[in-house]
Write a structure and sequence with these properties.
By secondary structure, the protein is α+β, with helices and mostly antiparallel strands. It has two domains: 151 residues, 2,3-Dihydroxybiphenyl 1,2-Dioxygenase, domain 1 (Roll), CATH 3.10.180; 104 residues, Roll (2,3-Dihydroxybiphenyl 1,2-Dioxygenase, domain 1), CATH 3.10.180. It is 20% helix and 37% strand. The protein is built from six helices and 17 strands. The strands form two sheets. An eight-stranded mixed barrel has the order 1-4-3-2-6-8-9-5. An eight-stranded mixed sheet has the order 11-12-13-10-14-17-16-15, covered by helices on one side. Strand 16 and strand 17 form a beta hairpin. The longest helix has 12 residues. It starts with a strand and ends in a 5-residue tail after the last strand.
Length: 272
């Protein structure tokens, strides 16, 4: 059992309620707020059919916050980490360990999710991956134990037309070395391109693109989501007075308007 694709992307935010309003304004439907049991963090999630975006903030700094405070102090708001999908966290732990990838044993995490008809407790099993095997990026494996609580039809439709995460942009001083490490972890093959290397995750539509940057440590710099037509995000942003740019295949929002995330919307399939 191994990584089966992208589960979700984490966005670290300084003010969770302000971030909720920002992403709602961008045309996303958000889940109700969730609170991690035993931790000082809470979230709002933006759900798609196979993956999702997690807006993560600190709500009690006296409790464990999994270094989110360090990230916000050093980097400011923005893309925090990647959660890879797996059907069985324990088996994936054993599989990755056998491949000499540094991992920590699977641990369960729960959060309280307050719904109009009562509070539920989604449960997950997480396998954290040593940074040496993620090229320095924050990454872990996530298995959903109560998937039906999180993937609900009422949260899957978005006014901006977003349907899935199709791209994560990564900046690295050595793009080839970074791509090779991520390829070993995800069992994918890096493909050289004009600007760097790309890896399409197994069983997924999401591609990791690694390009050259001047920072010593690789960093997550942008995210692309798929839409059926560019008119949906462009129309929503125009109506809401949100600055955006548009070319033939992409609508883009400035990071200042998306909690530090360079957010792109692209067509599900480029015209022939």
């Amino acid at each position: 059992m191994s990584i089966t694709g992208l589960d979700h992307v984490l966005v670290g935010v300084a003010d969770l309620e302000s971030a909720r309003a920002t992403w709602q304004g961008l045309g996303f439907t958000l889940t109700p707020r969730g609170r991690h049991i035993g931790w000082g963090t809470a979230n709002y999630c933006i759900m798609f059919e196979q993956d999702y975006i997690e807006l993560l903030g600190i709500v009690d700094d006296s409790q464990f916050v999994n270094r989110l405070d360090e990230f916000l102090a050093a980097e400011g708001e923005g893309l925090l980490g990647l959660a890879f999908a797996a059907d069985d966290a324990e088996q994936t732990y054993q599989d990755l360990k056998a491949s000499n990838i540094g991992v920590q044993p699977a641990k369960e995490l729960k959060r309280l999710l307050e719904l109009p008809d009562g509070t539920v407790t989604p449960e997950f099993a997480l396998v954290h991956i040593d940074s040496a095997d993620t090229a320095g990026l924050r990454a872990f494996v996530c298995t959903h134990l109560t998937r039906e609580m999180v993937w609900q039809p009422r949260w899957l439709r978005h006014a901006n037309g977003a349907e899935a995460i199709t791209g994560i942009e990564i900046s690295a001083a050595d793009p080839q070395a970074t791509a090779n490490r991520l390829a070993r972890l995800t069992r994918s093959s890096p493909v050289p391109g004009a600007d760097g290397f790309s890896l399409t995750l197994p069983g997924d539509v999401c591609t990791l693109t690694v390009t050259s940057g001047d920072r010593a440590e690789p960093s997550l710099t942008g995210m692309t989501v798929m839409v059926p037509t560019l008119d949906l995000p462009a129309g929503h942003f125009a109506a809401g007075g949100i600055y955006f740019t548009r070319d033939t295949f992409t609508v883009s929002v400035d990071p200042d308007d998306a909690n530090g995330v360079a957010l792109n919307f692209t067509l599900a399939q480029a015209p022939a």
